[in-house]
Amino acid sequence: MTSPAPAARHPHAPRGRDIHEAGRTATPLELLFDLTFVVGVALAAAQLHHAEGAHHVLAALPGYLLAFFAIWWAWMNYTWLSSAYDTDDAVWRVLTLMQMTGVLIFATGVPGLFEGRTQLAVVGYAAMRLPLCVQWLRAARGDAARRATCLRYAGGVAAVQALWIANDAASGWLPAAGAWPAIGVLVLLELAVPVWAETRGPPTPWHAHHIAERYSGFVIMILGESILGATNAVSNLVQAHGLTAELALVGLGGALLAFCLWWMYFLLPSGAALHAHRERSFGWGYGHYVTFAALAAVGSGLEGGRRDEARRRRQRAGRRRRGGRAAGDLRGLDLGTAPPRHARARPAAGPAGAGAGMHRPGAAGGGARAAAALGPAAAVAGAGGHDRGAGAAAGGELHPRRHAKN
Fold first, then answer.
1. How remote is the C-alpha of 100 from its chain's centroid?
2. pTM > 0.85: yes or no
3. Is 277:214 a contact under the CB 8 Å cutoff?
4. Residues 6+ positions from 64 with CB-CB distance below 8 Å
5. 118: helix, coil or strand?
6. CA 203, 204, 210, 213 torsion: positive or negative?
7. Are 330 and 373 in contact (CB under 8 A)?
């Protein structure tokens, strides 16, 4: 009597899905899984947005690329695994929930990555990766033909994760200059695991159209997060300053940009292309890191455009306030409140001095203050007024002499 197949001994173990399965679409669990990753993408883009506002983009770019790599890589590994071995049973759901929890922990630690604090992010990354190893072990138990492939996945993911933990533990005594080279080596090891697992044995039975749908759904969610952030920024400006033609054009431009990006992405029927050329899956899948990271950065740039518009509005409002204060000072000038400065400094004796000190004040003193507010034209007017005052003083000095002769 023949022994039962491994799948029969373990009826709940994942077995390879049919690559030609008709009507294969994303499950509700997969869509919920994607939403938790959008939270991490939003936080990474927010940190990049803050760096743009502080003019420190280049300093923040390595942290953004690393954070986005961890988010994208964990999402990608689960997506390809679920396309080949998703059973949607209770064990699968619990393991997926554990990975979702790890995503949220990692997202909480994303701001620390931009400041050199990696402990919380490493804990979250481990919480994402270790349940994935268990899922690969279940797939190895249920798919005898590809057991070696699944075991290579499980062993490779676990080994690289152990290296991440060791690298984080050693970061306290390693020189700072060696941190990024070590991270670069770990990233290359992560990328090498699927290549090693898939090329050394029978490849996993992922569904091309299902993979294309999952990637396109993630693109839409990233664009939606970008549109939401940009809309919130425009809404805050409208509430603060009212709707203007400039704000309307800025909002319309952001929406058109997102629409054009969506249109360009869906020009190529990715599902049919992947199904016809399964050997190109690595280039297609890995290349989406650049696509996803760039789309999230576009959302950060859209919010930065709204920030720049708000700064320009504040600057215009400041100029209007300063102009209003200058006009108020000019209206409030009393041109007859103070004698000329030289008259206060050098009081003269005798009738001529009395005439100079008692001529109608304001021509010189008021002209001096007006010159400070109005510039050269007011200075000319003030000088003329001073000359008229001096002439009056001279007249007051000559009249007594004329009467004395008489």
1. 23
2. no
3. no
4. 44, 45, 47, 48, 51, 114, 293, 297
5. coil
6. negative
7. yes
Burial class (CB in 10 A: 0-12, 13-18, 19+), 317: exposed
Q: What angle do CA 36, 39, 41 make, to 5 degrees?
A: 115
Residues with Cβ within 8 Å of residue 164, at least 6 apart in sequence: 122, 125, 126, 186
Residue 194 pLDDT: 96
Which residue, 180, 187, 154, is CA-closest to 72?
187
Beta carbons of 389 and 363 less than 8 angstroms apart: yes
pLDDT at residue 387, as a whole number: 43
By C-alpha distance, which of 13, 299, 269 is closest to 139?
13
| Local structure of 313: helix, strand or coil | helix
Token output for 5? 């197949």
- C-alpha distances (whole Å) from 227 to each of 41, 224, 252, 256 are 13, 5, 11, 10
CA–CA dist 302, 291 (Å, integer): 17
Give the pLDDT score at 235: 82
Residue type, 215: Y
Residue-range domain boundaries for the chain: 8-318, 341-401
Report whether 195 contacts 80 (CB < 8 A): no
Q: Note the pLDDT of residue 168.
A: 87
Nearest to 79 by CA among 217, 266, 277: 217
Structure-block tokens of residue 341: 């400065």
The residues of the chain scoring below 50 in pLDDT are 1-9, 335-336, 343-406
E strands along 233-277, which residues? Answer: none
Structure tokens at 398: 């000559």
Cα(99)–Cα(73) distance, rounded to whole angstroms? 13
Are 367 and 379 within 8 A, CB to CB?
Answer: yes
214, 78 contact by CB (below 8 A): no
**Which helix or strand (DSSP H or E) is residue 178 part of?**
none
| Torsions phi, psi for 173 (to 5 deg) | -115, -5
Supply the DSSP symbol for 243: -
Q: Rounded CA gap, 290 and 360, in Å?
A: 79
